[in-house]
What we know:
The structure holds three protein chains of three kinds. By secondary structure, chain A is of the alpha/beta class. Helices cover 35% and strands 22% of the residues of chain A. Chain A has a five-stranded mixed sheet with strand order 10-9-11-8-12, with helices on both faces. In chain A, strand 9, helix 5 (154-163) and strand 10 form a beta-alpha-beta unit. In chain A, helix 2 (59-70) packs across helix 8 (231-246). Chain A is globular and about 55 Å long. Chain C is mainly α. Chain C has helices spanning 12-41, 46-60, 64-78, 88-118, 121-129, 134-149, 151-164, 176-186, 191-220. Classes of the chains: A alpha/beta, B mainly alpha, C mainly alpha.
Amino acid sequence: MKLRRTSTAVAAAAVLALTATACGGGSDSGSNGDKINVGIKFDQPGLGLKTPDGKYAGFDVDVARYVAKELGYAEDKIDFKQAPSAERENLIKNGDVKFVVASYSINDKRKKEVDFAGPYFLAHQDLLVRADDSSITKVEDLNSKKLCSVTGSTSAQNVKDKLAPKADLQQLGGYSECLTGLENKRVDALTTDDSILAGYASQKEHAGKFKLAGLRMSDEKYGIGVKKGDDELRGKINKALEKMVSDGTWEKLVKQHFGPSGYKYEAAPKVEN
Amino acid sequence: MTSVLYDTPGPRAKRRNVLYTIVFLAVMAVAAWWVLSALADKNQLAADKWTPFVTDSQVWTTYLLPGLTETLKAAALSILIALPLGALLGIGRLSDHRWVRVPVGAVVEFFRAIPVLLLMMFAAALYREFTTVSSDFRPLYAVVTGLVLYNASVIAEVVRAGVLSLPRGQGDASEALGMRKGQTMLYVLLPQAVTVMLPALVSQLVVIVKDTALGGALLGFEELLSQNRQITANYGANTIATFTVIALIFIVINAILTALAGRLEKRLRQGKKTAAVVIPAQAGAADAVKKAVSDA
Amino acid sequence: MFDFLDSGQYDLLGAFWVTAKLALYSAIGSLIWGTALVAMRVSPVPLMRAFGTAYVNIVRNTPLTVVIVACSLGLDQTLGVTLGGSDFKDIGFRLAVLGLTAYTGTFVCEALRSGINTVPPGQAEAARALGLSFTQVLTLIVLPQAFRAVVTPLANVLIALTKNTTVAAAISAAEAAFLMKEMIENEADALFAVFAVFAFGFMVLTLPTGLILGWAAKRLAVKR
């Protein structure tokens, strides 16, 4: 009978819908069983990148691996989670991840919501320009230039508020889109932390196309974000970071990830307790 | 139908049409040449920007296919939840009781008036602040919630229009047979309305599939479109190539859904004839279909 | 609860003004473009018909986000099309209007096409018998009646367009969704209030459109 069939179908759909909503509840431990969840970037070459083979590579990733190892988690016990800039505090606060290593600069606003271990790296806001462009030598030059940065980023805010309020600033969804504009000469410079820029500049596809201007327009101390008040974990991570510097791993990793771009990185910053 | 708008072309009209064709072709060729030469000039057609999508299967297995899975998952969940909810709301709006009809109508109009992106953003913040849903599922939940709220209210309108389009005699007859209101709706009106509505519902699926892409940019939902960030970060900022490929995937999927809707409509129309059911007033249903199609 | 409104930190009216302008310009643009598309789809020139069909099927099936990003990435960043805008803010707005027009035009076209189908064939036949050309048949006889038949679907398209302007946030046109995201991040404790304000804002924009056009639909309907 036709209408019986229709009502069966409707009922089936309803049941499916209910089971769909019911499944997949959340855990809020930040570590599931003997595994540990760590937040990194998935789309920043040199720092945190999901590579085509499904693995993760970059300086932040290796720092995260080192710290996790010191905390007692072998490499195969780490679950990397994507931590987009706007989501980092939420991931930590909700306990979705144990800690975040994602080009995460320490500042007072963020300190209100999370605690930071480290710093483990000192970066500066800088510019990426075309290799044959030498017209930008100081910050004031920017006021007559076309700049590009990522929507809502600290770097974009810095340019608007302090560095070059008169510059024509384009804000796009991702760095790659800015790079397309830079490559096509629609913008004159891409601005963000020099560590991120160095990652792009040292990719083989971009070899010889771009260079860093080396302006050092701000200090960005990268820290490892942990839950507010978790001093035990923070202390452990700080110890791991100190050990990483003293046993030469830090130097090795920095050379490995930033070396090819000719990026003049700063010496390892002192861990603040 | 279209041929009714113009006479069968005679010799002069034929010549004129050929001329128009040539002019139009020339304009399109110039536009295409301009775009392609600009792309080539800016090195955007360089082989290494496009070949990964052909030669490197990992682009598909690591980024595109998992992204597509997320997109389809969100779309499927949304339609499965929105369908019964929308049917309920639609029936509620047809209720004889004022205290059901009015609030349901308000809910439907409210969610139809608000951009689905805002609904998603609100849902994401809600889950973040007040629930313990893990970060793995939160964006998916937010996207599905936004899509369900919006599409359920759209479907409610489709259902209402579908039921209203049925001849009054259907309801009167079942009443005369002694069926209760619920029975009339469930056994007589809804099954007939469903056949009228099906094409509109399938084209609503196209809207849902497209709207999942809203969750990528602002919410961090790892759907198909958002994969462009990771792909372009790995293959030297080949943004144009990546967006083109992703757009093509969307177009193919939605074209399949649209074709499905078309075939469904045809089959249902044929079914009508053989069943010899006389439905005089189809204007309302046609309106409902049109409305849902245009309600992008 | 609503004290963030008085802080002067957020330019709420400014953001909704941008939304309204985006919607208005794109509405005008897409009505024109949609009419042109439908003219192509019913024209006697096969190539134009093919183009119209292909364009509608491709663009309608593409997510709006992709269309908008394509405008920014393809037209601006690569082809250098600025539409006469002076700085990126201006260019972003103009490109958003262009993208919304290109996208919404397909829905206007489809609505009009079903409107043309409601015009009795006798109308066009009579016009042809009088010796009117295709352009005259279309612009003087068929389209005026088609428009009046599809005021309601067109109203829905325009309301959808108003809501779709939020997608322009993807290329950082400073409209309402962009501001809402910022406010949700900064005013997490006033989440419901923030949402209520924006929901109200959009209802102020969309509900009157629906009511006015609904009234117009009744008045304009062709009596047969």
